[in-house]
Amino acid sequence: MDARTYRTESGTVHYWTDTTAGPDAPWLVFLPGLTADHTLFDAQMEHFSGRANCLVWDAPAHGASRPYPLDFTMDDYACILHDILQSEGASRPVLIGQSLGGYVSQAYMDLFPGTAAGFVSIDSSTLKRKYYPTWEVKFLRHTKGMYLSIPWALLKPWGAWGAAETPQGRANMRSFMDGFAKREYCELAGHGYRMLADALESGRTYDIDCPALLLCGEKDHAGDVKAFNREWTAGEGIPLVWVPGAGHNANVDNPEFVNVQIERFVAGLDA
Fold first, then answer.
1. 11-28: per-residue pLDDT in tens?
2. What CATH number is attached to the domain comprising 18?
């Protein structure tokens, strides 16, 4: 992978590319979830190397893209991503977002309609407000205090066990948390959930205007993600595939299955 940087007014965003597949190959853009870094998609970057042009980032305030002030919105993320993709010549990306990355993908498609070739959601859910009860949106604004109230020695193993079902998935999540001090982690998590609440309450009326696929771990216990995916597929008609034996970080828990699903999806775009 080639390490790259993109400078914004607030800080430097780090991302990685693999363009060994050549100029005619599709672009797969991997977007990790809240508090995770680019290593969440190591198995996908390795699998698709030479088969597709790939890009994965550490979102602002994540991983190597720190320090970065917590003053960004979901749309800010989408705009930064758009600028990065433009600079790389990735004009028709397939957006593959896990959790927060799925929300960023939808904001991207809302702001830049007609530019995405496809969208794969991994353990994420819709940005349309109508699918969320009011209490849940309000709860999103109070997660920082809840996290701060939990001792760090307990929060780290709970976070790892809540995000993944396999030893490799839990080790991967624990590695992200070990990279933070407690206060920084809680501040970032709290800002991320508030950012999601703001995006939901913005009243956006977008439609996903490209082929899409929903992937969700059959053992995902993160909030109501499984229920939201059932409602999302029923309400929007987007195919939903359950990832066997996987939790919230399904692409780490069962990378072989997820990679096959992404492969089939991308192949279908050219059919």
1. 999 999 999 999 899 999
2. 3.40.50.1820
